[in-house]
Amino acid sequence: MSTSETEVSHGSTDTRFFGQPWALAHLFGVEMWERFSFYGMQGILLIYLYYSVTRGGLGIDEGVAGGIVGAYGGAVYLSTILGAWIADRMLGSERVLFFSAIVIMAGHIALALIPGVAGVGVGLVLVALGSGGLKANATSVVGTLYGTDDDRRDAGFSLFYLGINLGAFFGPILTGLLQSTIGFHFGFGLAAVGMALGLLQYSFGRKQLPEAARHVPNPLPRNRYVWVAVIAVAAIVVIAALVLVGVIRADNLSTIVIVGTVVAAIAYFAVILSSRRIDATERSRVWGFLPLFITSVAFWSLYQQQFTVLTVYSDKRLDRNLFGWEMPVSWVQSINPVFIIVLSGVFAAIWTKLGHRQPPTAVKFALAAIIMGGAFLLFLPFAGGGPNSTPLLAIVGILFVFTVAELLLSPVGLSVATKLAPASFQTQMVALFFLSVALGTAISGWLVQFYDPNNEVPYFAILGGIAVLVGIGLWLGAKPVLKLMKGVR
């Protein structure tokens, strides 16, 4: 028996962390602190961009600011390609995760210390690159803790998702408090402190992870390292030149990220499907992943509007008065994580209880899209209201529906990506799932331009209706998709 097989076998008997392998605790911790910093920063980013200079912001047009946030969010998930490729070809997932955490911390420090647009540019680029590397690889490392037939896998990913959302809950609350009392840059500084704590914890626990987490499945020959460096430098020069000549601008960032993500996704599917390193079963499973990918794009296009349209909505339309005190805008971002913290354990228990009787992944994805579309339709009764016209309780209820949809798709999507992944494309298959998030997130920023507070009904009705139709389509095609997945549910 190989080392990795021995570790997986041991992991199947290790139930010290709420019925899961103890190594999951270390990944739970680093992801919790990374999400604290990520969502803490993102909770105040949009209003920092469009608030006037007298209010501590940069005074950027709201539509452009929303596009920047959407493009940044898309770039985070788009950069998972780079992180996954480095893991699969050069360093292994665990090492990339560690170095990515350092880059993220540097990005938050830049946002906190460098004033103006320069700080935003440097900070967001670093955070996007680091977060992309950490996201795909943390998920891949979690996958190494379980055998292929371990029924605890979906429950383990749901527990891992709990760690994500503990950080996502506390981040916006604390950064929002600092932003509203002593300024934006102190909020960004707290995000840097949070990532530093996550890095410290992971530094102590990383040695306890299985050796499979450090495995490089498809090593790049050493003589090609120079070419990688040349290509990296060339890419940086080209991007810098496009910015300087005005091809890449703040007002078209979301469109550029959308186009780049579509091209990357098509290329990735083509590379994997045409590879000689995968067999017929693995190739069929990748084809089975394609409709899940499309449904995921539709889902995230709506869900990620929490950070664009919903932030503007919360700032201008939501009644945020609590007993005479106005809560910070960023606190709305902490509502969803509360529900996830409560419900992720419930969903984990349900999947564990059902075991092989649980719905197949395609049905879970279909339900997620239908429910997410329904959440947008719930905005319709409040359409056309004035300032402070939407009760806080209404948004709480809508975000509850968001959460149910999310738990049917996001942790399940991470899990199925590891199960459907060909042996030679383990982390890169997870990156493909994140590409669907990248595309959906970028689209969510691009859609801001169509949001008109004076005519909201078409916006929420059309987007909600499209998501419902996508979900119904996948549900009707669930059996053919399951057949393509060759035994993976």
From TrEMBL:
Cellular component aspect of the GO annotation: plasma membrane
Major facilitator superfamily (MFS) profile domain mapped to chain residues: 1-482
Pfam families: PTR2
Gene Ontology terms, MF aspect: peptide transmembrane transporter activity
Positions of transmembrane segments: 36-53, 65-87, 96-118, 124-147, 159-178, 184-204, 225-248, 254-274, 286-303, 331-350, 362-380, 392-417, 429-451, 457-476
Key words of the record: Cell membrane, Membrane, Transmembrane, Transmembrane helix, Transport
Chief subcellular location: membrane
Topology with respect to the bilayer: Multi-pass membrane protein
PANTHER family assigned to the protein according to its UniProt record, in alphabetical order: PROTON-DEPENDENT OLIGOPEPTIDE FAMILY TRANSPORT PROTEIN, RESISTANCE PROTEIN MDTM, PUTATIVE-RELATED-RELATED
Name listed for the protein in its UniProt record: Peptide MFS transporter
Organism: Microbacterium protaetiae
